[in-house]
Amino acid sequence: MHSVVCIMRIQIPDLNCVAILHSKVVGQLGEMRALCDTNKALLRANPLALLGIIFEHRSQLWDRWEARLYGEVDLVESATGLGQPEWRYNYPTAQRAKELADVDKLIAQLSSTNVEICHGQNILASGSRFGEFCLEAIDMVEKLRGGGRLPPGARAMIEDRIRFSQSLCLALEERFKDLAERHNGQINVICNIIAQKETKISRAVAEFNLEVARVAAVDSRIMKTIGVLGMVFIPSTFTTVCAEHFVALLPCPFRRVEGQ
Question: How many domains does the chain have?
Answer without folding.
Answer: 1
